[in-house]
Design brief:
The chain is of the alpha/beta class. It is 41% helix and 15% strand.
């Protein structure tokens, strides 16, 4: 916000918010129950600031090191920011992740569960986590196997981690709806409420199938600059 506390208009944010409200209404849901995570990976502080000045406070980053370079200063200025780790997380980055983020969306293996639980205990800081599922069974993507969800859920809970729900990224270039529906079924079968699914091109579909957290970057910030040749 500005020095006077007045929120500045932000057309992309207003447009996305309108689409969220429409999709939620069609699904018989409340827009307030859907968190819009502004994906700020590769975006500079100057690019992020207009969204902050408009009043938006929920952001997502893919890399711990990149987030550590820009968010401590921004969070000092906007202390009510909620920062989500949405990218793959290495176990050796658990300490930094627990210190910096408020949510982790990419818990996909027991070694990471152990590392995060240890750091949460050491730092006395509890972060809700999503279990990432390799919903399209793609070898190049992170996420636990579909059949391994109940076991990983049990391991996380036994370690004292609050599991907020499930997260997934459908295969690129396919119809995302069946994958969203499958993730929603997995969540119901495991009595989980949270669903982190849906991005710039498909978040409206995800909302209609129950998404509680959508991850939107390009639609909010515009295309990323192409590096010079």
């Amino acid at each position: 916000m500005t020095e006077t506390g007045k929120k500045l208009a932000n057309p992309p944010l207003d447009e996305i918010s309108s689409k969220i409200e429409k999709s939620a209404r069609i699904a018989g849901r409340k827009a307030a129950d859907i968190a819009l995570i502004a994906v700020s990976k590769t975006r500079s502080s100057d690019e992020i600031r207009p969204l902050l000045e408009s009043g938006h406070r929920v952001f997502g980053e893919n890399r711990v090191q990149e987030a550590a370079e820009k968010w401590p200063a921004l969070k000092a200025e906007y202390p009510d920011v909620e920062l989500h780790m949405i990218g793959q997380l290495q176990s050796n980055k658990a300490a930094e992740a627990v210190a910096l983020f408020d949510y982790i969306h990419s818990v996909d293996r027991m070694s990471l569960v152990k590392a995060l639980a240890k750091e949460m205990d050491r730092q006395d800081r509890r972060l809700p986590c999503f279990l990432q599922v390799n919903i399209g069974e793609e070898s190049q993507k992170g996420g636990c196997d579909i059949k391994a969800v109940p076991q990983l859920l049990e391991q996380a809970r036994d370690a004292g981690i609050e599991v907020a729900g499930l997260m997934a990224v459908p295969p690129e270039g396919t119809n995302a709806m069946p994958y969203f529906a499958l993730l929603a079924k997995l969540a119901r079968d495991n009595e989980l409420d949270g669903l982190s699914m849906g991005m710039s091109g498909d978040f409206e579909k995800a909302i209609k199938l129950g998404s509680t957290h959508i991850r939107v970057g390009t639609a909010l910030f515009g295309p990323r600059a192409t590096p010079a040749a």
